[in-house]
Amino acid sequence: SQGVPANYYNGNVRNALLPLIANQGKKKPQTREYTFNVISSYQLAGLPGDHKWLKNASIGGAYRWTSKGAIGFLGAAPDADGLIRNLDKTKPVYDKAKGSLDINMSYRTKLFNNRIGTRFQLNVRNATESGHLQGVQVNPDGTFNAYRIIDPRQFILTATFDL
What we know:
It is built from one helix and nine strands, in the order H-E-E-E-E-E-E-E-E-E. The protein is mainly beta. The N and C termini lie far apart (75 Å).
């Protein structure tokens, strides 16, 4: 049948090539242009006062930020038959800039008759995130066609022993 190769090309090959064709000669808008990372830790022993437990405690955190990035392109003008077959490389659809915050707290002590050094640490990963679905790709009309699951904040408690 005459239509089978054309249908295969339009459905499988051409659709995969459209974003590549739309990006020819341009910087890649899917790559986020700016990123910023900072990490910090503070030993509470430096605080004023006579609190023995503070000398063994520390707090810290990390912040990560990325600028916006394209997740697709809007469709170009429809062909004569009314179907949109091409993407408009001048109309990217952007995902917003993102930031995430991690927090950690730790405490050092000795257990078992002061023989085994121990460190307890609580990490809160993505402390400001409550979890959601995030669109990561769009159709030519701007509606999402692919999503990823953004995990909510996680609490991780670890104990490390010096043997």
